[in-house]
Amino acid sequence: MATATQTKYEVNVDIVPSKLQSGIVYAPFDLAQAELESENYDIISLPVNVEQRMIQGKQHNVSTKGNYVREGVLYIPRKGTKLVRNSPILYSAEEATQAHRDIKEFYPSKEAIEKALADSVDFPLHNIGIPTNRFNEEALTIWAFGAGDSDKAQAYGNWLRNGEPEIMKMPVWAVDKDYVNKQNYPFARQLWFSRLDSRSVLNGGSRDLHSGDRVRGVREVSAEGASQKVSKTTETENVKKYTPQEIEEHKKIVEGVRTGELPASKLEEVLGLFSRL
């Protein structure tokens, strides 16, 4: 176990309009959420995230860097998969982060699952691509980007198609169906919303809450208070982007697929690492 040292986690504010402020924290998910909430930020939702991308432009941090959002994916063995607006992980962040650190799944309670499913949409059972000129036709993109408004969803699709990078099809990544159906209980993964250079992937297969990736928050502020940058000192280990142990784990996956000891579907975990850069 790493020795606890003084580490300063910061909300790095990069969006400062008159009423809405947004920033990111680089930390394990549970610590990032705690830091954001201590400064009255909520973890950003997909509709707000895409709105800010369109407002700020394709060269802004909100577009050139991916981040975790508040949505999550519920994988229900032999029944289906749902994208939920309020991930169960939001309410058990410490437990979920530790599960991923231990290379395990996070299994929400029955009550947490029922609560999450109240605002949800079907998520694919395998990796797919959605043409950006059809965001107003697909239930997933209408719900995810437009919050039910097909015109708003298509506005993001049109924005992706114009300018650089030009994105004609957006990938959606899911955990392998065979793996899901081998589980005894439903499990949750937090959704990662990828940068534009990664084609704005909706990555529902990430199991790396512990690795210190970006978590984006948003809050309403007055114009007078919109320029501040907040920080807080926390007793924990220094966070690295990827630890040697995590890199070694991904190397073992690649080697296992090469030798035939692991199915090719396991490569999705390795792809997930690159999609979050």
Protein traits:
seven-stranded mixed beta sheet, five-stranded antiparallel beta sheet, alpha+beta, 277 residues
Characterization of the model:
The protein is α+β, with helices and mostly antiparallel strands. The chain has one domain. It is built from ten helices and twelve strands. A seven-stranded mixed sheet has the order 6-5-4-9-10-8-7, with helices on both faces. The chain has a five-stranded antiparallel sheet with strand order 3-11-2-1-12, with helices on one face. Helix 1 runs antiparallel to helix 4. The longest helix is centred in the last third of the chain and has 16 residues. About 6% of the residues have low confidence.
Number of helices: 10
**String of helices and strands:** EEHEHHEEHHEEHHEHEEEEHH
- Give the strand content: 25-35%
Number of domains: 1
Uncertain runs with pLDDT below 50, 5 residues or more?
226-241
Largest sheet, if any?
7 strands, mixed
Average pLDDT taken over every residue: 86
Helix content: 25-40%
- How would you classify the helix and strand content by structural class? alpha+beta
Shape: globular
Tell me the number of strands: 12
Radius of gyration: 18 Å
How far the N terminus sits from the C terminus, by CA atoms, comes to 26 Å
Strand order, sheet with most strands: 6-5-4-9-10-8-7
